[in-house]
Design brief:
The protein is mainly β and 306 residues long. The protein contains three helices and 18 strands. It has helices at residues 2-10, 12-23, 127-142; strands at 34-41, 44-52, 58-63, 68-73, 82-85, 97-102, 107-114, 119-125, 144-158, 163-176, 187-198, 204-219, 222-236, 246-261, 264-277, 280-281, 286-287, 291-305. The longest helix has 16 residues, at 127-142. It is elongated and about 85 Å long. The two termini are 31 Å apart. The relative contact order is 0.15.
Length: 306
């Protein structure tokens, strides 16, 4: 069950990215577009040298649309520009075709078209496409969040040949920012979570999982929600005892976040966790009753919205 749960919520990271772009698509005044080159080339081997700025979006319009565009650095040893045919919403009609060109470096470029007939060519520095280019570069990070929290757990933890009382540790969360999951603006949380629980005697339990979070109340800088978690891991630094050292953990908590500066939240989450050691005897390959206990849990730390 826990593995299916992990796969389901982690896949939401992929679904969140398109929604983030749709929500934050910039509005830019296209009237500021600047024509940097405009001429008619013979289409029979004639070329033009154009100066392009690195990491800048240019729209290259050619008529007729059957012409073949070639654009490459005028000097050897330089990287080729990125060229994409058929941009969306191109402000160009009349049987032509439009390309988006993004040079990697500022330099002179050789622009050539092959058509067997005269070809009109225009090169336009387009601020709208530049804004979209920069936005797409940020969108992958814009869907993500990152958290580091201290953990205190109180209660009995089974160790296969004994028990221990409670644990301290830390949690690292890589997640989806609230509001970017396609079917729920209130859903977010950890798509990947690592918990390190330090036990008495130098022992440690490492847990890996996820923790979706649902926002119940958002008012000003305060965000209150409920979080659930599912994880699986192992007891480390423990001599072989013949008993399984694999653990499953399920928890629920009430999460409170307070925004202190832009994109930075302080977070506190009290809750409970059910920590169960897998019921399996390695020596006899027999299933034995699982050993599980419910513990109280408190986490506190910093949450960053990237």
């Amino acid at each position: 069950m826990s593995r299916r749960f992990l796969v389901l919520f982690s896949s939401l990271v992929l679904l969140a990215a398109p929604r983030a772009e749709a929500q934050r698509r910039p509005a830019v005044d296209t009237a500021r577009a600047v024509v940097t080159f405009s001429d008619v080339l013979s289409g029979r081997g004639e070329y033009a040298i154009v100066v392009l700025a690195g990491r800048t979006a240019y729209r290259v319009e050619i008529t007729p649309g059957t012409a073949i565009l070639s654009i490459r650095p005028a000097r050897l040893g330089m990287r080729q520009p990125a060229v994409t045919r058929g941009m969306e919403e191109a402000a160009f009609t009349g049987g032509g075709v439009t390309y988006l060109v993004v040079p990697a470096e500022s330099a002179e470029y050789r622009l050539e078209v092959a058509a067997g007939e005269p070809v009109r060519v225009r090169v336009i520095r387009d601020p709208r496409e530049q804004a979209l280019l920069e936005h797409r570069a940020r969108s992958a990070l814009g869907t993500m969040s990152f958290g580091v929290r201290a953990i205190r757990m109180n209660g009995t933890i089974d160790l296969a040949n004994g028990t221990t009382d409670g644990a301290d540790g830390m949690e690292i969360c890589l997640g989806i920012a609230t509001g970017l999951v396609p079917f729920s603006r209130r859903l977010g949380g950890c798509a990947f979570m690592y918990d390190r629980l330090d036990l008495a005697g130098g022992l440690r339990i490492d847990l890996y999982g996820l923790a979706p979070r649902y926002a119940l109340l958002r008012t000003g800088p305060l965000d209150i929600g409920v979080a659930a978690s599912a994880s699986i891991g192992k007891l480390v630094n423990r001599p072989f005892t013949g008993r399984s050292t694999t653990y499953h953990a399920f928890g629920v908590g009430l999460s409170a976040r307070l925004t202190v500066v832009r994109h930075v939240d302080l977070e506190v989450e009290p809750g409970i966790s059910r920590l169960t050691r897998e019921g399996y005897d390695l020596a006899t390959s027999q299933t034995v009753p699982s050993e599980g206990h419910t513990l109280t849990r408190l986490t506190a730390g910093v949450h960053l919205r990237l």
